[in-house]
Amino acid sequence: MEHDTLDPIDRAPGLRGPRRGLVIVHTGDGKGKSTAAYGLALRALGRGKKVKIFQFSKAISARVGEYRAFARLGMPVEVLGGTFDWDCRDADHCALEGGRAWARARAAILGGEHFMVVLDDIMLALRRGWLALDELLLVLQQRPHAMHVVLTGRNAPQDLIDLADTVTRMSLTKHHHMAGVPAQRGIED
Description:
Strand content: 5-15%
Number of strands: 6
Strand order of the largest sheet: 3-2-4-5-1-6
Helix content: 25-40%
Largest sheet: 6 strands, parallel
Number of helices: 6
């Protein structure tokens, strides 16, 4: 399979060990978690790698800029918040739909067809109880050896941080919303 062989790239001096897939977490209360994950996906696409993106918190109707861009590149984002999202009001319905969404993402990870799988705002599913942390950790441990998985969202649990290879915590220093400036198309959507 394509993902079983990683591109030969010169190793940095002093680095040892075999190349392998990474678990990368972008968390924190600052802006840029999803943006960073989408940037990694673009890098992989630019290298001809197969990437799958799952978005756990926005509704399909949002049609935000990243969805439009990836669709133009022939790789649509799979938006899992079609009938549930961050503003869910029916807990039972959202738990059911969240579980179905996770089943699709889980199948993509364990199916082994992709070089990279992005689980954008997966922390929402964890916080709401739509996905058990133990289940997520098990799937990450069982993923194909060369597969990279990128997870985003606020408040990543410590067990996930411990398992991850790379963790970046985005911290909020200042945000234009604090000055009453609304969301900007092309910046936040």
